[in-house]
Amino acid sequence: MSVDVLIVDDSAAIRKILQRMLGQAGVTLGKVLEAGDGVEALERLKIQTVNLILSDINMPNMDGIQLLTELKSKAESKHIPVIMITTEGGEAKVMEALELGASGYVRKPFTSNQIKEKLVGLF
């Protein structure tokens, strides 16, 4: 099964790295959408549905926690697994994301094996 994915990060370089690492993790990619923040991500999701979202926590305009809250409040997106990507040293933001319904998280810098571990059982 190919996976349509939305990668949300304010760094274009990190978005490309995540896309490459998904491939290295053995994910058969379908459509890959990118967004620079939560606002842009929500706009992308109005046009195209996805099977997976990878989202940074710290972003301008709408951060990953706000995006996750919005996604989980809507019937059309609450079922989509969301993996949070973070540089957060503290546990508070990560725990908040998990409580809001994130499927897991990965800390930067990350490896393809860490990404793969978080995807086990999602598809």
Give an overview of the whole structure.
The chain has 123 residues and is of the alpha/beta class. Helices cover 40% and strands 22% of the residues. The chain has 5 helices and 5 strands, in the order βαβαβαβαβα. It has a 5-stranded parallel β-sheet with strand order 2-1-3-4-5, with helices on both faces. Helix 1 crosses helix 5, helix 2 packs parallel to helix 3 (64-72) and helix 3 runs parallel beside helix 4.
Give the helices and strands, then pairings.
Blueprint: E1 3-8, H1 12-24, E2 29-35, H2 38-47, E3 52-56, H3 64-72, E4 82-86, H4 92-100, E5 104-107, H5 112-119
Parallel strand pairs: 1-2, 1-3, 3-4, 4-5
As a whole number of angstroms, the C-alpha radius of gyration is 13 Å
Measured between the Cα atoms of the first and last residue, the distance is 8 Å
Largest sheet: 5 strands, parallel
Order of strands across the widest beta sheet? 2-1-3-4-5
Mean pLDDT across the residues is: 93
Q: Tally the helices.
A: 5
The level of helicity is 25-40%
Low-confidence stretches: none
How do the helices and strands follow one another from N- to C-terminus?
A: EHEHEHEHEH
Q: Could you name the key traits of this structure?
A:
123 residues, alpha/beta, five-stranded parallel beta sheet, 5 strands, 40% helix, globular
Task: Summarize this entry quickly.
With 123 residues, this protein is α/β, with parallel strands linked by helices. The chain has helices spanning 12-24, 38-47, 64-72, 92-100, 112-119; strands at residues 3-8, 29-35, 52-56, 82-86, 104-107.
